[in-house]
Sequence to fold (154 residues):
Amino acid sequence: MNHEYFMHKAIELALKVPQFPFGAIIVKRATGEIVAEGFNQSVVNPTFHGEMVAINRCAELQQPVDWSELDLYTTAEPCPMCQSAILWAGIATVYYGTSIPYLKEHNWRQINIRASEVIAQTSFGHTTIVGGILEAECNALFEKAPRGVFHQHT
Fold:
């Protein structure tokens, strides 16, 4: 799998909403096919984070879904809500660029619970989490976000 290629695709999605540059794609691991994508749409609904939009689109478009065959790429470490949804779905691996501590350091509103902590507290499934994919490029998205907006991962 070309992790950088897929993260570039997530970054492209994030650029659609530069004030909230959270983009995500879901990939079928065996074929490299992108089966769903999403970007932050919290102005419509506060739960429409990039990962949530991608998961919902996958559920709509890919019936039935064997979620264990899928990986998710996202520009930022999933928040507790998103990581919980990833676990409920059964997505095998998450790759992210920017970390929650980095977002907090740059005044983005975040719940201070890492994705790995959500995984550790889940008894019914497991997701592997891999951070730092194109980290500098993802970090730049959040550094360049318009400062006039209220920074939040929503």
